[in-house]
């Protein structure tokens, strides 16, 4: 499987499971209609109509494209990591039960892990 070439900062987050600083990513305050895709493999991950403002400084989504995102126990033992189901690239973490949306789910994603296709 051929992946997109990643720069050093993208590798730090997507491959080495890093985190970008809050309120710095290109998609945290992005409001176009379309679909958010994996920066590493272009798989469709999050429809734009599932994005909401969580106030955290990272793009937040209350749902995913079916079977596009895998949940894994995080190395810290407290959180649940989310990765692209297609390539395994690190996306961020998922939090449940916060009540921010009717689905009470927040996929907290690093902008650097995403690309976007406008409708």
UniProtKB/TrEMBL annotation:
InterPro entries: Met_Sox_Rdtase_MsrB, Met_Sox_Rdtase_MsrB_dom, Mss4-like_sf. Residues 1-119 form the MsrB domain. It comes from the Bacteria. Its cofactor is Zn(2+). GO terms for molecular function: metal ion binding; peptide-methionine (R)-S-oxide reductase activity. GO terms for biological process: protein repair; response to oxidative stress. NCBIfam families: peptide-methionine (R)-S-oxide reductase MsrB, PRK05508.1. This is peptide-methionine (R)-S-oxide reductase.
């Amino acid at each position: 499987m051929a992946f997109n070439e990643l720069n050093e900062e993208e590798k730090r987050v997507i491959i080495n499971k890093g985190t970008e600083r809050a309120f710095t990513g290109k998609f945290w305050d992005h409001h176009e209609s379309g679909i958010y895709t994996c920066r590493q493999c272009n798989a469709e991950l999050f429809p734009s109509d599932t994005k909401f403002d969580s106030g955290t400084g990272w793009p937040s989504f209350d749902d995913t494209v079916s079977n596009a995102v895998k949940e894994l126990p995080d190395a810290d033992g407290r959180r649940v990591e989310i990765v692209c189901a297609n390539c395994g690239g690190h996306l961020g973490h998922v939090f449940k039960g916060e009540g921010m949306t009717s689905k009470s789910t927040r996929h907290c994603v690093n902008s650097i892990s995403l690309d976007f296709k406008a409708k």
